[in-house]
Amino acid sequence: MSAPMSDTPDTAIPSGLASSSTAFDRTALADFRELAGRIDGNGPRYTSYPTADRFHGEVGDAAYRRALDACRANVPAPLSLYVHIPFCENICYYCGCNKIITKDHTRSARYVDYLAREMAMAAEQLGERRAVMQSHWGGGTPTFLDPVEMRHVMSALHKHFELLPEGEHAIEIDPRRVGDDRMELLGELGFNRISLGVQDFDPEVQQAIHRVQSYEETNGVVRAARRLGFRSISMDLIYGLPHQTTQRFSATIDRVLEMRPDRLSVYSYAHLPHVFKPQRRIDPAALPPAAEKLDILVSTIERLTAAGYVYIGMDHFALPNDDLAIAQREGRLQRNFQGYATHAGYDQLGFGVSAIGAVAGHYAQNARTTDEYYAALDKGQLPIVRGFETSEDDRLRKFIIGELMCNGTLDIPAVEASYSINFAQKFAAELVDLDKLALDHLLRRTRNRIEITPLGRLLVRRIAMVFDHYLREDALRPKPAAPAANDAKVIPLVRYSRVV
Ligand code: SF4
C-alpha cells in the first residue's frame, strides 16, 4: 500500500497515459475487479462542469445574447458547433436520448426551417461569419433527414459560418438507413468523420433491445467511408444489455475488430425505466448480473488494448494514430459535450431541441420539445430554457477535472500560477479525500503533482468527483436515511451513465 503523499520527485512519476504499449496493465484490471464492489466507478461524465443537472431557468434568451456578445469580442478564436436532429424511425428500447419517434418525414422539413432560423439569429448576434473548427450532427438520427433537408441545413451553416476544411466535421449515422448514395452525399457535404451506433451484433440481444442491425449493414457503411476517404470512423457499443455474456459480447468484439474503427466507445447500460420509458420494455431478468457485467468490461478492455487500441479513458478507445490518441500523448486532450475531443477549448454553439451551448463561461440549453422550440423562435427569441453562468471557482474546478480525466495528471504549480491560488489551502478538504483514494492506489500525489495510476484511470470519475463542489455541498446536507459509513466512499455517488 503506497503512502498517499510521497517525497518522490515529480520527474520520477511515470505517466500512465504516455506509454507506447497499448496493452492495459493486467495488475490494474485485477485490482479493478477487487475494488469494484467497494468503490463505485459511476458518476458524472463531466462533459460539462457544473454538470447539466445543475442548470437552472434563470439563463434564457437575454443571458445567452450577452454571452454571445462576449464571444463576439473574442473574434479570432474558431467555434465548435453541435446540431441536434431528434427524429428516429424506430425506438431502441435502451435509449435515453431526446428523440422523436416518427415515420412522418414532413416533421423534419419544418424542423430544418427552424434550425436555419436559429442559426441566423445566433450568427447575427455574433456579428460576423465565424470560423468553425469542429462541428457535430447528433440525435436522434441525423440521417433521418432526406438529402434535400441535409443540404438545407448545411447551406444554412455555410451561410452563417466558415466551416474550416482542416476541422473535424462529424455526423452520427444509423447504418440501417444509410446506403452508398447517402455516404457519397455526406462526403460531398463536407463531413470527414462518422460515428456509428452498433451496440451488439448478437441476434438475441438485438431482438431484446429492438435494434436489429446486421453486420453487413454496418460493414457496408464502414467500407464506403474508407473508400470515400473519411478521416475517422467511430463506433458505439453498449455492455450490460439483456442476454449479454462475456462470451457473446466477445463475439461482437471479434466482428468489430474485423472492421477496425479508429475510435470505439463502450458504454455501460444503466437500466432506469422510471426515467427512460422505452426501457420498460426490457426484461430486467434478462440483464447480466453485476459480476458478469464487470467481466464483460474487463474482458473488453483486455481484448481492445491487446488488439492495439489505446485506452483513452472512461469508455473510449482509439487507434494510436487517431487524433484522440495523439492529443492525449501530447497532453492536449479535452472534454466537451461530445465526450473526449481534440478541439474542446472553443466556444460551442448548440442548435436544435435540447442542444447545449457553452459560450464565454455560460452554459445554455435549448427547449426540449419542438413546440417550445418553435414558439421561442417565432417570437424572435433564442430558444434557451436553462443554463448556468460559471464562476471563477467553477472554471478552476472544470480545468482540474478536465486535466485529470483527459491527461491523467495535474501540474499543481501551473494551476497555482494560472489561477492565483494556494492549491493546498484552497483544496485542503479535497486533498484529504484524494489521499483516501491514494490508499486504494487510484492516484499518487506529491506536493507538485497529482498523477492518476492505470487503476485510477478505470475509476477516474470517482477521482474527478472529489473536485465537484456541488456534490460536496450535497454531501453536507442532511439526508433522510444515512448509508452505512464507508471510508472509501468519500462523497455520495450519483449514477450517471450514457446509454446510447
Ligand atoms: S438509440 Fe439512437 S436510433 Fe435508437 S431510438 Fe435512441 S436516438 Fe434513436
From TrEMBL:
Superkingdom assignment: Bacteria
Purpose: Involved in the heme biosynthesis. Catalyzes the anaerobic oxidative decarboxylation of propionate groups of rings A and B of coproporphyrinogen III to yield the vinyl groups in protoporphyrinogen IX.
Pathway info: Porphyrin-containing compound metabolism; protoporphyrin-IX biosynthesis; protoporphyrinogen-IX from coproporphyrinogen-III (AdoMet route): step 1/1
Keywords: 4Fe-4S, Cytoplasm, Iron, Iron-sulfur, Metal-binding, Oxidoreductase, Porphyrin biosynthesis, S-adenosyl-L-methionine
GO biological process: one example: protoporphyrinogen IX biosynthetic process
Cofactor note: Binds 1 [4Fe-4S] cluster. The cluster is coordinated with 3 cysteines and an exchangeable S-adenosyl-L-methionine.
Domain Radical SAM core: 73-307
InterPro entries: Aldolase_TIM (IPR013785), Coprogen_oxidase_HemN (IPR004558), Coproporphyrinogen-III_oxidase (IPR034505), Elp3/MiaA/NifB-like_rSAM (IPR006638), HemN_C (IPR010723), rSAM (IPR007197), rSAM_sf (IPR058240)
Binding site for S-adenosyl-L-methionine 1: Y82, G139, I356
Single GO molecular function: 4 iron, 4 sulfur cluster binding
Alphabetical list of Gene3D superfamilies matching this protein: 1.10.10.920, Aldolase class I
Protein name: Coproporphyrinogen-III oxidase
Keyword Ligase: no
Subcellular localization(s) per the UniProt record: Cytoplasm
EC number: 1.3.98.3
Reaction catalysis annotation: coproporphyrinogen III + 2 S-adenosyl-L-methionine = protoporphyrinogen IX + 2 5'-deoxyadenosine + 2 L-methionine + 2 CO2
Residues annotated to bind S-adenosyl-L-methionine 2: Y94, C95, G96, G140, T141, E172, Q199, R211, D236, A270
